[in-house]
């Protein structure tokens, strides 16, 4: 899920999987492992973004005014 232009939300399904519950469906485990790997990569990206936001919030990294959330959402003050 992310914010598109004009304050609209966009939903994209990256992966889905059926959990195999019997031997004949055992090949569905491949999709299940792909789902787990995708979730892991998303988590790592979230951790990276979180660290970047902490650096910016603490003042360790200077953020140009035009790249702030207020400027992105066209607010005069946040």
Write up what this structure looks like.
The chain is mainly alpha-helical and 78 residues long. The chain has one domain. It contains 2 helices and 2 strands. It has helices spanning 29-58, 69-72; strands at residues 2-3, 9-10. The chain has a two-stranded antiparallel sheet with strand order 1-2. Strand 1 (2-3) and strand 2 (9-10) form a beta hairpin. The longest helix is centred in the middle third of the chain and has 30 residues, at 29-58. The radius of gyration is 19 Å and the shape is elongated.
Search tags:
78 residues; mainly alpha; 2 helices; elongated
As a whole number of angstroms, the C-alpha radius of gyration is 19 Å
Show unreliable segments.
Answer: none
Largest sheet: 2 strands, antiparallel
Strand order of the largest sheet: 1-2
In short:
The chain is built from two helices and two strands, in the order E-E-H-H. The chain is mostly helical and 78 residues long.
Helix/strand layout:
Layout: E1 2-3, E2 9-10, H1 29-58, H2 69-72
């Amino acid at each position: 899920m992310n914010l598109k232009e004009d304050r609209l939300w966009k939903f994209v399904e990256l992966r889905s999987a059926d959990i195999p519950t019997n031997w004949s469906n055992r090949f569905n485990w491949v999709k299940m492992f792909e789902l787990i790997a995708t979730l892991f990569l998303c988590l790592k990206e979230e951790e990276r973004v979180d660290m970047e936001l902490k650096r910016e919030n603490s003042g360790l990294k200077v953020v140009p005014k035009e790249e702030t959330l207020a400027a992105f959402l066209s607010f005069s003050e946040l």
